Amino acid sequence: MPLELAQHSGADADDLRLRRFTPAWRDALTEASVRTRRCFDHGRPIADAVHGRLRWELRATWLGGVRILDRLGASGFNVFQSRPTLGWIDVGVIATRSVFWRRRSSESGGDSAAPVSAS
Questions:
Q1: Residue 16 CA neighbour count, 13 Å, CB half
Q2: What phi, psi does 24 have (nearest 5°)?
Q3: What DSSP assignment string belongs to 43-91?
Q4: pTM of the full structure
Q5: Does the structure show a pLDDT above 60 at 105?
Q6: 3-state SS assignment for residue 105
């Protein structure tokens, strides 16, 4: 968590030490998630620029990170109530999406790593 985000939101580190999840921490973590997602989106093309095993590892890392960000957002960022994890089902989803990964064009939006439908 960047210190400036916590300070800007009025979040107090003592609240975390006491396991108190406050609206200020929700705001700070929401903004951190937005920044992190932007970084992920910016770095996504790297997985297309490499070859071999590294390409597959970067795809899986990117997809796993995005799944965790999605779960954090769905829980309202309250990791004291529900800490996001990846399980065996996620392994299958990530593997499938790695295989059907498409390069993202500058015009496309959404999850272009989702499997392509056969319609």
A1: 14
A2: -65, -40
A3: HTTHHHHS-THHHHHHHHHHHHHHHHHHHHHHTTT-TTT------HHHH
A4: 0.79
A5: no
A6: coil
